[in-house]
């Protein structure tokens, strides 16, 4: 099992504010089940030319020297089904990190957007049917993204430049760019101290 974020406290689902309200939510035994709208996504310009700003992200403040993490299950089956952790400054500066179903397989990745989006992916087919943890630590001039499947240690996904004076919020997100009916169960949302070390 992955180590929880240091000095962690649970964030109540009611503390967050949606960037775009999902089709439906349901609290059940401490979990939050989020059903996405068909066509929901987050992307800016690069390669595709379009701007999508309709992700379902439930956000609460992420100050410097803090970390936030979410746990969720992955019932993905359609192109670009995705869920994970979203960090937002404004509509042109944001990060999404987590699991995405692309070209027939599960991938661990991140999109970093500063005016325009980029995209990085690594296949994780053995993560299917397992609980996923995604953690982002904010410290100094960086966001550090880590992730794991249940029973494995967290792995480093990405280190992202991020100015210390930015006012940012973060929390769980879901997108379903290509279909209706995607419901993702989030089992935990935690905030705590930033990770002490990069490695």
UniProtKB/TrEMBL annotation:
Segments carrying the region annotation (Disordered) are 1-22
Q: Which SUPFAM superfamilies match?
A: Concanavalin A-like lectins/glucanases
What is the protein's given name?
DUF1349 domain-containing protein
- UniProt organism field: Microbacterium aquilitoris
